[in-house]
Amino acid sequence: MNRQVLVVNACSPELDYLTANWQGNEKVTLCRPLARLTGSQNMRPLDLVIRSLTKRRSLPINPDKVDVKFVGVLEDLAFKMVSHSRFLGIRERVIEARAIAVARGAAPAARNADVVIAAWQSAKEPFAASDAVRVLNYPLAHHEYCATILKEEMERVPAFAATMNSHSWPSVTTDRMNEEIETADRIVVGSHFAAESFPKTIGRDKFIISPYGHNNSLFRRPDSTPVNGRDLLHIVFVGQLTQRKGIYYFLETAKKLKGKARFTAIGAPVGTVEPLAKYQDVVTFVPFATSSVVAETLRTADIMLFPTLAEGMPISVLEAMACGVVPLTTMRGPGEIVEDGVNGFLFQPNDVEGFVSKIEELDRQRDQLAWMGTSASKFASAFTWKRFAEVIKVELEHA
Fold first, then answer.
1. What would the pLDDT profile of 249-304 be if each residue is shown by its tens digit?
2. Is pTM beyond 0.70 here?
3. DSSP per residue, 144-169
4. What is the DSSP string of 199-246?
5. DSSP state letter for 100
6. Which has the closest alpha carbon to 191: 307, 309, 313, 308?
């Protein structure tokens, strides 16, 4: 008898790609907020209106092969209304409300499932409703680890404290996340760093470490690499403009290299734009960009500077590598895919002088930069969403 697999996803793109690339005869059901799907899907008139308002991206999921159930619809609309709010507290509470609504909406479907794969904060009710194998998807380093290092960072760089996220959850949310971790049979993370950030009381055999994939038809190396013909190297940052991702250290590096390189930051501001204002003469800010625009920009770039403090595994670094961009980043998630000195370079997040020195060195040694870009692109080509799904499926075959 074929197993029934339920995927519960409030906002994690990796679970959408897992569903789309799940191979086998299992019946797969996806519970998530509204989205545009490939193929046909019956939708209520209200769903069609809300989907138009939320402008959700298209997903590579064929609803003729996957049973898609839309849940948390109104909460998702509320999130869209506050998604760019300067008031982080309101935004984060709405995100939590959406996750809980998705979990409650998916719980009835969990009763008949043999495997439940659920996103963090959306797993509690589906896990409780089922005797299935319970798999928790955890997209970031452990919440207690994040709270500790990010609060320290707020004291270190107070001017950017208002841009911080993923550091302060109410106790009801952390209790929920702890219960999900405790009741999960397996936990999916994108890197060894993420797994090691969990308390040692959680057995390491509980983790499935599966690095994320990328859209290799969109993020690809340009036909030619004119790095040697450029007057100025192009340095990019892709991600939310938050100090969790080290945006201050990117900006300080840009300031020190003013006139010596071109800097672009692609991503939405978090909390406030005020700390960014004084860097507008050294950085081009692109606050909202489609995936196509991100890919086009990466194909004009030479280096990605991403001094993140805590990740699961940043897809943006993989996408940059696929485009032949050399990453300068940290061990805290990106270290899963970056081999220091081979396809990129690894630093401590706050090593601005190290970033400046390495960029100046690579500017002088452009042949090495071009070679490393080729190495990065070849390495990234192995990381597909199909591979991500296969690793997880194999781990669960005998569960």
1. 999 999 999 999 999 999 999 888 999 999 999 999 999 899 999 999 999 999 99
2. yes
3. HHHHHHHHHHHHHSGGGGGG--SS--
4. -TTS-GGGEEE----B-TTTS---S--GGGG-SSEEEEEES-BSGGGT
5. H
6. 313
Q: How far is CA 31 from CA 12, 95, 104, in A?
A: 12, 16, 10
| Coil/strand/helix, residue 37 | strand
Q: How far apart are CA 7 and CA 38, in angstroms?
A: 18
Q: If you search the block for the tokens 């989907």, which residue do you land on?
A: 51
Sheet holding 284-286, edge to edge: 284-286, 261-266, 233-238, 303-306, 326-330, 345-347
Rounded Cα gap, residues 169 and 159, in angstroms: 21
- The answer to whether residues 141 and 314 touch, using CB atoms and an 8 Å cutoff, is no
Compute, in degrees rounded to 10, the torsion defined by CA atoms 244, 197, 139, 349.
30
DSSP result, 321-364 = HHTTPEEEEESSSGGGT--BTTTBEEE-TT-HHHHHHHHHHHHH
Q: Which tokens go with 58?
A: 């298209």
